[in-house]
Structures are given as C-alpha cells and as structure tokens.
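Re: the 432-residue chain
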Amino acid sequence: MIPRYTRPEMAALWSDEEKYRAWLRVELAATETLAARGLVPPDDLATIREKASFDVSRIAGIEAEVKHDVIAFLTSIAEKVGPASRHIHYGLTSADVVDTALALLLVQAVDLLLAGLDRMLGVLKRRAIEHKGTVMVGRTHGIHAEPYTLGLKFVGWYLEMKRNRERLVVAREEIRFGKVSGAVGTYAHLDPTVEAEVLGKLGLKCEPLATQVIPRDRHAALMAALGILASSLDRIATEIRHLQRTDVREVEEPFAVGQKGSSAMPHKRNPIGCENVSGLARLVRAYVQAALEDIPLWHERDISHSSVERVMFPDATTLCDNMLHRMTGILDGLIVYPERMAENMERMKGLVFSQAVLLALASAGLSREAAYNVVQRNAMKVWDGEGSFQELLAGDPVLAAALRPAELAACFDAARTLRHVDAIYARAFPAD
C-alpha cells in the first residue's frame, strides 16, 4: 500500500512502466554501441530505434509462462521489432540490464530525496532564525536541566539533515555503477570498451570487477544512509511528540480546520503526523538489515538479493520521501507556545540555574564538594516544596558568606547562560 503522503514523482519512478523503460535504455545503448562498431547493420539499428517498445501487460503474460522477467521483456520487444531484434541483448546477461537499470532508478530516487532534503533545510533554517531567542527549558533524561532556546533545536535538526544530505550524495556516487561484462563478469563476449561506452551514454561508471552482479555492499551503503535519514526524521518527530504532551505543550504540530483527533474524545489534538513518521522509520531501519543480508551471495551470484530489492528499494525510498514531505509540512506549520515555555521554566522555581550557583561558589573560594553540598541541599528543599531556590540559597549562611546578593541574583539570569547562542548560530550558518 502506498502511504498517503507519497509524492507522485517517487511513486511513478518505481512503476513497472518506468522499470521497463530503464531496461530498454540499457538495451538500446548497448545495441547502438555495437552498431557504431559495425556489429549491427544500419538498417537493423534504424528498425530497432523505430520499433523497440514494450507492453507491460504482455510482459506479464509471457512471464507467467516462462517464469523469467528479462526473457519476457525481450520477447515482448522482439514481437514489435521483428527479425532485427536478434541484435538486442547481444552478449549480455540479465544482470547487465537489471543491475545497470537499477542504478539509473536509484540515482533518480536519490535526486528526489535530495530535493526533499533541500526543502526541509530551508524550513529548518527559517524557523531556527525565527526562534533564536525563544527561551525554553532544556531537558536531560526528560528532566529540567538549564535554559535553552527553541531555535537551537531547529539548528541541531538543520545540521543533522545537512549530514544526511552529505551521506546521500556519497551514497549516490557509490551506487552510480553499472555493468555490461557478461555472465560472470569476464567480458567473454564483449570488449570492456563496449561497457565503458554504454555506461558513458547512461551517465554511469563501470564497476571495476562485477561477478555476474554489481557487489551489494554498494546497495547496502545506500540503504544505510536511508536508515540514518529515517532515524533522524524519527528523532525530530519524537521530540515534537514529547513537547506536544498536554503537561508540556510547548509546541504542537498543525491541526487543520475540520480535523478530528479521536472517535471517542472530541477535545483531542494528537501528534498523528509525527507518530506516523516514527512508525515508518521502523520499516526503513528494518530494510537496512535486509540490505546487509544481501551482501553475501553464492559464488559469482545467486538471486537471493533480487526478491528483497524488488520490495526494499521502492519501499525505502518511497517511505523516506513520504517522511521528508510530511515532516517538512509539520515543521513549516509548527505551532509554538512561548508563554507555556516561560511557565515551564518557572515550574521548578529556579532549579535550572543550579550549575551557575555551583560555579559561582567555587569561584568564590569554596571547594567543589562544599559548593555542591550547599547547592544540592537547598535544591532538595525545592523538590520537597519548601520554597524557591533563590530564596532558600539567600538564607543559607554558607552561601551568604561567600556571595553578595547581586552575585547570587546574577546566577539566575537566563540571558547569561545563553550568551553564546550567537556563536553557535555563526558556526551553523557561516555564510550568514
């Protein structure tokens, strides 16, 4: 089942029509190369160019009988071309066509994903700049830590997606290899220069040593990059889901007019988009394992990888495209509640500034252990509901002897703890 938010460009790429079109591109490139060497008569080449085409339903009918997809494809073409079809697939094995065509399709799929990443990067950068000064509490282990900004979350996601883009660019080059080297990769019936010319026409590079197939570590590298991309999207989705919880409610994914959240509870506004992304990421990660299992094949080849790849690559690229599109929309329309962030900052009555007090006491001459004890014993009183952190510290005789009231008050300044945010932004967006 194609996910709802799948864009038509990616869905169309993995249709039978597009697959056979890629196969035909490989066959024609090989035939034209042989014709240039005088191995295919000009009249036959003209006939092939004019008539070579395929019928998807006819291929399916032939395959039902012969149980071989490439033979069914070639038979369908031969029915249209006639006697000149004897020059098609000359010296090739099925994997020459299938693996080379798969490289063409995967390059196109990665290009679509790179375009999707570029759109997301634009949204993340815009929102990072928009919320550079939107102060919120930072959390470690899910517990209030020190002041943070919402903009820094967007910066972190932006940088992670840049790394995902870089990995995909590398993976695109690693997968951009074809082969026209025959049954066991020895060029028994075609010269290696034929392969170089055919692949040059297709914009691909020559696999230095293919057996009958292109080594599957290349495909696993691409799948690993997709798995990391999916997990990065899951990380963003998971964070938004946490921040949207009713008891936090600092951000919220868009909720459309007319949208309904629950069949039982009309008040519900659930983070279904982010939950969808988190769920789909599990599928993509599972395919990484399948891709790794595809690397070991018997001898010069078997076809245990083939059935996996017919599912894995269409699914994984389509799912990643879906998740990118979905998450970009969520980030673009993310609802932000600064007032709630301020409220949550105050919930622990100043405990988020504990490290600033610790360091101030150490700078004033207390040992780190003594300073830690002063800060912690007063912090525990706040946890027990005995008052605000700053007031309790002010009443502590050890602290009062070490810090003046103004020095203590300075420890509770969020702007002071966030004074290096500009430096972080300068590193993240150096051109700006």
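The chain has three domains: 1-90, 92-253+267-346, 351-411.
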